[in-house]
Amino acid sequence: MPSSRTSGLNDTIRQDLAIAGSRNLDRRPLVETNQPAHRVAVLALDPVVGFDMTIPPTVLGAAVGEDGTPRYRVDICGLDRAGVRSTAGYTIVPDYGPELLAEADTVIVPGTRVDGPRREGRASPELIAALAGIRPDARIVSICTGAFALAAAGLLDGRRATTHWAFADDFRAMYPKVLLDENLLFVEDGNLCTSAGLAAGIDVCLHIIRADHGSEIANRAARYCVVPPWREGGQSQFIDRQVPDPGSDGTAPTRAWALRHLERDLDLHALAAHARMSVRTFTRRFKAETGLAPGAWLLRQRLRHARHLLESTDLPVDAVARAAGMGTAASLRHHMRGELGLTPQNYRKTFRTGWSRPASSA
What we know:
The chain is 43% helix and 10% strand. It is of the alpha/beta class.
């Protein structure tokens, strides 16, 4: 049976990223730190969702500095050291018991089908005791149905949370004290962060890296894992692809066209005209395909592009606003405050990574 130890995986990731970094000679080195790696405990509850359990060591293990220094140490623990079955058909033997939770800076609970929290709305005494040992200042994260375990232990009472949309009705019935929003990819409420199902666990791990170490390390980890570097927690679990297939039917060609021309004065009438539909028909089909009204979708894409420019270029804020189609710096500031709670300047300061690439505002 495979061990839960992730050192071999992390060593391979660090070697690969060091090689990749040596080939990118136009970049100035990031500021390195001599601080100990952030300790992450992944609590595997039998039966654990196999895919979910592999996400933290893989994604967080890819968060390394330019010299290959790991930013996280990820270990897997159980309620005891007995074998933990996975839904993928294999069994792991954790190297640690629940005592690891008291040492962790971040605790992650992957998806699980454990009967108590998932079927009966209750947690075992062993689970309650294990979660009670988490440090008060630790970050607590769930992936997919891992939120059931946190809720069963009372950790989500009165807090905002999400889980896999397919299990939202069960969750709401068993845990009415939790402020559940199953439409989101992930929800952060203080030290608690809950994510939707499966691949949303990748998004929440990249969010953790970005929050802890900035966008460059997060983006490099995403590139290693061959996944998009950023999907907002506020995005719907039912989302369209960022770049639609222009050869498909419906509104996808118009969305692809709009993404190429965000700097233009686009509005509902311009989008409908490009799609050769009436405004009413276009609006109905657009919302059916994306889950969003055209205006809301367009604003989301413009804010996403503005964030990218703020992270990766030295363009002045007013130039970023024009390039993203937001018009003025004041308009960009208003919408970023409403969406992210940050001004453009504060966002840039938070997510800058020590290097930038010039860009044209044209």
